[in-house]
Specification:
11 helices
Length: 355
């Protein structure tokens, strides 16, 4: 019997066997980029999913509503528009659904935004995460919480590739501080209350339905409109660009891999592509796919930025078979196709409404 193809962000993947997952699964941040794809993948695999998102206005909220509308079309999806920092509201959702598994992907994102707007990072990333930890602690039969951390926790670390065993004591931004704080908060709850927890350090995730504030989206918008793109550190930057489908497969594998609550420390994993790519090459591929050259505005490195990030993914490969394999060219191809179709459809809708 032939299995139905399983797609994440337009790319076909082998259907994962998630034999430990059961019940209704909570995914926070479902209006966001990674949260949307994670919830959709779980729904496509036949799970019941509850999504929570505040749908804030950090970037164009319309794309958050559009992502949410896709999820709402699934009969097995239930959505709550709520701020995670509202503990009583989040507890009521936990009490109603009695989750055994949860993935916390809601956060105030963005390194540079944290330089000018610090307070939302404490509200969302610290207070919001505390709500989830407290609810998991007080839910009978709760089995496993996977949560988003970030490669930004490595800060000034110069060892390449970044290993989970490297020290993470010199964060470069408040955003990084909140993500490292999440890891420490999780560790304290693991120690005190024997909750099974897994931290996931994401590395520069991109792909269809990506965030408008990130490089792929900003650059492509500017290239197509003939506007200059800001290229920091005069282009001498490199990242471990990770396709969102690969990241989601890692999230699913990690969620299904329940760590022992009796271990001294809860596990933290890098979810990157394990390949250092120069920013200049990233731009070249976008130019090729868009069929237009970028006008580059070369600028100094910004406060909070680091010149290079790349992940050692050995631990995730060993423990739950994490296996990213999407090249920059392939992944950006999916992104450019989505971007062009998305805005083409938006323009058609606007034209029809004014006809």
């Amino acid at each position: 019997m032939t299995q139905t193809p399983f797609f994440i962000a337009d790319k076909s993947y082998p259907r994962p066997t998630l034999h430990h997952l059961e019940g209704t699964i909570l995914v926070t941040g479902t209006g966001g980029f990674i949260g949307f794809h994670t919830a959709k993948a779980l729904l496509d695999l036949g799970f019941d999913v509850v999504g929570i998102d505040s749908l804030n206005h950090y970037y164009d909220v319309q794309i958050k509503y559009d992502r949410t509308d896709i999820l709402k079309a699934y009969p097995r999806f239930t959505f709550y528009k709520e701020d995670l920092a509202n503990y009583e509201a989040i507890k009521a959702i936990f009490d109603k659904h009695q989750f055994q598994f949860a993935v916390n992907l809601a956060a105030q994102a963005g390194v540079r935004y944290s330089l000018t707007h610090p307070f939302p990072y404490i509200q969302s990333n610290i207070n919001g995460f505390l709500s989830i930890l407290e609810c998991a602690r007080h839910t009978p039969g709760f089995k496993h919480l996977a949560y988003a951390s970030s490669s930004s926790v490595y800060g000034q670390n110069t060892n390449m590739p970044f290993s989970e065993d490297d020290p993470v004591n010199h964060p470069m931004s408040l955003y990084a501080v909140t993500k490292r704080s999440n890891e420490l908060m999780a560790q304290s709850y693991h120690h005190l209350y024997k909750i099974s927890l897994t931290g996931l350090r994401f590395f520069t995730v991109y792909g269809p339905w990506g965030r408008p504030d990130m490089a792929a989206f900003k650059f492509l918008d500017a290239i197509e409109a003939g506007r200059p793109i800001d290229v920091y550190n005069y282009g001498n930057m490199a990242r471990d660009y990770t396709f969102v489908g690969d990241t989601v497969m890692g999230i699913l594998g990690a969620l299904n891999h329940i760590p022992k609550s009796t271990e001294k420390s809860h596990p933290v994993y890098n979810l990157g592509n394990n390949k250092l790519e120069k920013l200049s090459y990233f731009i070249e591929v976008l130019e090729e796919l868009a069929g237009k050259k970028a006008i580059q505005n070369k600028l100094p490195i910004q406060p909070g930025d680091v010149p290079e990030t790349v992940a050692d993914i050995t631990k995730a490969q060993t423990d739950f078979g994490y296996n990213p394999g999407t090249s920059i060219h392939e992944g950006l191809g999916y992104f450019v196709n989505w971007h062009q179709n998305y805005f083409s459809n938006k323009n058609k809708t606007r034209s029809a409404s004014h006809a």
